[in-house]
Every structure is written in C-alpha cells, then in structure tokens.
Amino acid sequence: MQYDVAVIGAGVCGAMITRELSKLDLKVVMLEKLSDVSMGTSKANSAIVHAGFDAEVGSLKAKLNVQGASLMAYYCNKLNVPYKNIGSLVVAYSWDDMQTLDILFERGFNNGVPNMQIISQEKLRAMEPYISEEAIGALWAPTAGIVSPYELAIAATENAVVNGARVKRNSGVFDIEYKDDLFFLSTASGVIKAKYIINCAGVFADQIAKMIGDTSFKIIPRKGEYYLLDKTEATMVNHVLFKCPSSMGKGILITPTAHGNVLMGPTAIDLDFDSKLDVDTTIEGLDTVKREIRKVIPQLTTRNAITSFAGLRAHIEGDHSDFVIGPSKENEKFINVAGIESPGLTAAPAIARYVGQIFREIAPEYEKKKDFIATRPAPVRVNELSPEERRKLVEKDKRYGRIICRCEGITEGEIIDAIKAPCGARDVDGVKRRTRAGMGRCQSGFCGSKVVEILSRELGVPMNQITKHGNRSKILYEKTK
Q: Which of 286, 312, 338 is the last residue of a domain?
C-alpha cells in the first residue's frame, strides 16, 4: 500500500503528529512495532505537564515546553482526556538550594513561564502540610499540571483514525530503501511505500534514522523506576513536588496522578545502547526511590504501593541536550522527531504543531481538509455519573450495570466500548489503558479473567489467543479439564 506519510512510532508524539497530519488531504499511516499504541515511554513516565523553567534558554526544548504547557488543557478538552492544573513546587532544603531556585526562576522567566514565585517556608507548609521540616522554601509554578499520557496518545490516535489515518500495529520497521522518490519500508506486516517519513520511534529513533544513512545522533536509554501508591495516600500530597534538579534530570519527585493515586520516582540510570527493551525494576532502584521520597514527605511510605514499574527515556548521547526535530540532512523528506525525553509529554501538542509546520513547508501541495473533526467523544465513565444518569444508562444497556473491575468501578459496557473504539483494545493491557480495568488495588487479581472472557467474545477468537500485551504474553494456553 502507498501512503503520502508514514509516521514511525505510536507514542504520544507520534499520535499527536498523526492527528495533526490528518487535518490535511493526504494518506497517513502510523506504524507501531508493538501490539498497541502508547506502549513505550508514553505509558511509563511521570505524567507531568512541566511549567518550563528547566530547559536552557533559547533551546527548542524550552520553546516547545512552554507552548505545550499552554496548549495541554485545550487539547485534553478537545480529546476528553484527564488533565489537572495543580501546579508544581521545587523544594529547597539548604541555602545552596535556594540559590538554585533563583537560577530556575530566572531561566523560567526568560523562557516565558508565567506567574512563578519563590515562596517562604510558611507558605510552603500551608500548601503541603506533610512536607519535611527541613524544607525552607520552594519555587511555585502554577502553570504545571498532570495528565494521563497513555490516554492522550490513545485519544489522539482515535481522533486521527476518525479523520482517515491508518494505524498498523505489530508493524516494526526493519529496513528502509529510497528509490524513485519513494520510501520502501520493510515491516513485520509487509512493505509500506510512502513519500515522506516522520521518525517518532523513541529510544529506537537512532536505529530508524540509520536505515537512511543518518548517523547524526545516538540514543542512550535512560531508565527510571517508579512506585505507584493506592488512592488512600492521595491526601498526603497536593502538588507536583520536585527536589532541586541534577545533571541527570529533574530528580525523584512525588505527584498526584490524574486518577487520584500518588506516583513516586523516577530514578535515572543510563543503560547500554543494546538495552532498549530493559524495563525491569531493581531492588537498588526502588530502594533509591523509597529513600529519596522520605526526604520530601517523611510520613509517605511504600506500604500502600499497588505496583512498581520502569520506563525508558530517549536521551541523546553527548553534550546535546535539546530535542532533535527537523528534516534529515540525508533526505529532507525524512523528518526526525528524536531525543524526546522530559519534557516531551508536555511539549507533545506543540511538537505536533511544529512538525506540521515543517511538513507543510517541504510539502506545500497538500491542502487542509474542510471536514476535519477536531474532537473525540468522551468515553462513558460510569463511576463519574450521578445515580440518575447511571439508572438511565443501564435502562438502555444493561452491560453498563455489570461491574467487572471492582477497584475502579469499570463496567462491561465500558470495556466493550474500548474494544470497539477506533483503534480499539486487542489485549488485556489495551483494555487497562483505555478503561482502567485492572489499575486498582488488586491489579487485575479479580477482574483479569473476566476481561479475557470479554475480549475473546467481542473479538471472536479463542480465549487462549488473548494476550496481556501481544507477542508471546499469553494468559491461557489450553484446557486442563
């Protein structure tokens, strides 16, 4: 099949760019090597909308961070994605830290971050009653927030599909050839032809670029480990809480999540170039998280942790600390979107617009669609409805009255909606990311088997073909009796 544009990688940036391109009268396909969208960095990160005081003044990262933070509420409203503007605090524990806050404030001011303040110990304690007694002040950035990154990627993908984009899962690219003004992409699902390529392959972006002879950057996978706490801990923290940053990043943080849990992490460990699939947690990494969070909120423990996980950031090797976004010097029809580590999630809406502008400059022949659909309908969320709204819904469809996930209050009707959605769920983790079935305290202990049963029935395949997250992650193999 021939397309105008092939977007490689279905993380949040790939999804937002595909949605942006679906505004044009062209054929666009998004290729993902795994079984679903948002299965790399976009499903395992801090889920924070950063204000923009960290990135170096004048950098692309700074520009797109601040723009992305200002756009996030707009896009989340259009796509019906959970977002909360709760603000962030960088906490100081010494006078040296206070000097660092002055540097961050000045940098943020020069980057265009609005309404920042350096606040006193007294005001900090009023905002965060459980903060360590050793804290002496903080940088307050009210434009920061929290979002659900995988839901943003899924929603953008669904909206793009409604507007004519194609998504091909289980379609990893292993070779690219350019001839007769076309790219020939050899994928796990066959050969794809495209006039243009946008490389959003995350930690694998350097390997994709190398396929056209572009060796201008190399990506180090930087692993971060996290704890996720039960919603019972939600009263312990009100804002995103950072310690002062280091050369390895923003450090270990504590934050509420968009769904009411508490997230702690990440660590920052650079892995070998060949370790781009290593998302194992370690005793050392999780112990580091526990040790560091006690310095911020001493009463907060991992006693009520419901899971731990690790994610990889796409860090550019060497002194280059900026995003790599633009046409490759090897072929201007190949656009790199690489090195999108923090604040990549925040910047994603602005990155999509920026790449859209670049594309229109090199391919001005494509006109805007007159019938572009800008919104994605809100999924049914039964636990957010009033009793009267629930009653009316169940009267129309009894499947919305059958609770499958007791921890999160997710119904059979919601799971079926997720399976039947544009680019719908095909495995257990796909249902989990779209509905939160299995994300509660028991982590699928009670609802997992029922989700498998519903997937089997709705997809029309045997239960032993349903996987957790594609490939060989089968849950059932054969009957024993």
A: 312
Residue 179 structure tokens: 């001839």
Residues 37-57: tens digit of each pLDDT: 999 999 999 999 999 999 999
The residue to which tokens 């009520």 are assigned: 304
Provide the pLDDT for residue 481: 78
Same domain, 243 and 305: yes
CA-based nearest residue to 150, from 418, 451, 339: 418
At 479, is the pLDDT very low, low, confident or very high (cuts 50, 70, 90)?
confident
- From 50, 239, 315, 469, active-site residue: 50
Domain count, the chain: 3
The pair of three-digit structure tokens given for residue 242, joined into one six-digit string: 């950072």
Q: Which residue(s) pair with 199 in the sheet?
A: 8, 336
* Average of per-residue pLDDT values in the chain: 96
Quick check: 237 and 130 in contact, CB under 8 A? yes
- Coil, helix or strand for 358? helix
What's the rounded mean pLDDT across residues 66-89?
98
Residue with token string 């009033």: 386
Q: Is the dihedral of CA 291, 296, 297, 303 positive or negative?
A: negative
Q: Do 328 and 438 fall into the same domain? A: no
Please determine, for residue 248, whether its predicted confidence score (pLDDT) is greater than 60.
no
Instruction: Identify the weakest region by mean pLDDT among 105-119, 181-195, 310-324.
Output: 310-324
Domain that holds residue 429: 384-465
Answer whether 259's CB lies under 8 Å from 288's CB. no
Q: Give percent of the chain with pLDDT exceeding 70.
A: 99
Task: Indicate whether this model's pTM tops 0.85.
Answer: yes
Do 184 and 45 belong together in one domain?
yes
CA distance 53 to 455: 44
Going by C-alpha positions, the residue among 446, 448, 445 that lies closest to residue 468 is: 448
- How far apart CA 205 and CA 268 sit, in angstroms, is 20
Token pair listed for 100:
């660092």
Q: pLDDT tens-digit profile of 110-151? A: 999 999 999 999 999 999 999 999 999 999 999 999 999 999
Residues 259 and 280 in one domain: yes
Q: How confident is the model at residue 236 (pLDDT cuts 50, 70, 90)?
A: very high
Say if CB 339 and CB 314 are below 8 A apart: yes
Instruction: For tokens 């650079």, name the residue.
Output: 270
Do 219 and 314 meet the contact criterion of CB atoms below 8 Å apart?
yes
Report the alpha-carbon distance of residue 305 to residue 360 in Å, rounded.
Answer: 47
Among all chains, which residue has been given the structure tokens 């490389």? 199
* 50 a catalytic residue: yes
Please indicate, yes or no, whether residues 50 and 165 belong to a single structural domain of this protein. Answer: yes
Residue 151's closest CA among 252, 275, 249, 45? 45
Task: List own/partner pairs for 360-364 with CB under 8 A and 24 or more apart.
Answer: 360/24, 362/196, 362/327, 362/332, 362/333, 363/4, 363/195, 363/196
Last residue of a domain, one of 334, 361, 378: 378
